[in-house]
TrEMBL record:
Signal peptide as annotated in the record: none
Domain VOC: 4-130
CDD domains reported for this sequence: VOC_like
Pfam families for this protein: Glyoxalase (PF00903)
Highest taxon listed in the record's lineage: Bacteria
Organism: Neolewinella aurantiaca
This protein's name: Glyoxalase
Length: 143
């Protein structure tokens, strides 16, 4: 079954900062815009940056593989080399990682590259790539 694009509306407190981050830094093409929102082609999905007041509280965190993962977060599963290239793009743009790119669950069926960072409005993003994409929805992490 082909994957259908998802739609996500994310709060941002500065549309120009969102335009620069998602458009220039992440390389997402801009779609329709208004004075209160901007559509982006987020790796084939529709991400809408909606103007909203800055959030006042810190994200919750869950421990995964010894790291403190911010919740909520969103992102995209990339191909392995695409992940490596994208991580370098982020480094080139000076993005500060919350969790640096690394291989999680190495040598296990759920082996994946992962990284976490924030957009200028404080939204947490995770990008990942599975060594074996057929394991994306595997119920177990080990063999």
């Amino acid at each position: 079954m082909p994957i259908q694009p998802f739609h996500l509306a994310a709060p941002v407190d500065d549309l120009e900062a969102a335009r620069h981050f998602y458009g220039t830094v992440l390389g997402c093409a801009e779609g329709r815009t208004d004075t209160e929102w901007i559509d982006f082609d987020f790796f084939g999905h529709q991400l809408v940056a909606h103007l909203a007041p800055k959030k006042q509280e810190d994200d919750h965190r869950n421990e995964v593989d010894g790291k403190h993962v911010p919740v909520p977060h969103y992102g995209v599963v990339l191909e392995w080399q695409q992940f490596e290239d994208f991580a370098q793009r982020l480094r080139d743009h000076g993005v500060k990682f919350e969790i640096e790119p690394y291989v999680r669950f190495e040598g296990l069926p759920g082996e994946q590259n992962t990284m976490f960072f924030y957009d200028p409005a404080g939204n947490a993003l995770e990008f990942k790539a599975f060594r074996d994409i057929s394991r994306l929805f595997a119920k177990q992490l080990n063999s």
